[in-house]
């Protein structure tokens, strides 16, 4: 799974599993087969070198920032109703967006 936020989640899961006594090989095998959660930076397709990611759980700027931070070059498709605070806090990531409409 891509992203610093996911690495932090994995580290927390490993620590919790280790604390309750699960062996590291069992933890590692489970993590290796974990596909991630639907709608959270979920790879859904590929066309040539273009990877399509569904991050529809990111419904506000705070939830979207970690995903945008995880990619250098993106086509960002977004929609929905504006949330309080808007998306101006995401402006540091706008330079990663290849094209905006």
TrEMBL record:
Transmembrane segments: none annotated. Keywords: ATP-binding, Cytoplasm, Ligase, Nucleotide-binding. The keyword Metal-binding does not apply. PROSITE patterns: PROKAR_LIPOPROTEIN. It comes from the Bacteria. InterPro entries: Mur-like_cat_sf, Mur_ligase_C_dom_sf, MurD. Gene3D superfamilies: Mur ligase, C-terminal domain, Mur-like, catalytic domain. This is Cyanophycin synthetase. The lineage of its organism: Bacteria, Pseudomonadati, Pseudomonadota, Gammaproteobacteria, Alteromonadales.
């Amino acid at each position: 799974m891509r992203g610093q936020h996911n690495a932090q989640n994995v580290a927390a899961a490993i620590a919790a599993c280790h604390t309750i006594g699960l062996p590291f090989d069992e933890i590692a095998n489970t993590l290796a087969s974990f596909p991630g959660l639907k709608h959270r930076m979920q790879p859904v397709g590929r066309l040539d070198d273009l990877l399509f990611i569904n991050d529809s759980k990111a419904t506000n700027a705070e939830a979207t920032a970690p995903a945008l931070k995880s990619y250098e070059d993106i086509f960002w498709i977004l929609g929905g109703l504006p949330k309080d605070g808007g998306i101006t806090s995401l402006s540091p990531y706008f330079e990663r967006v290849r094209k905006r409409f």
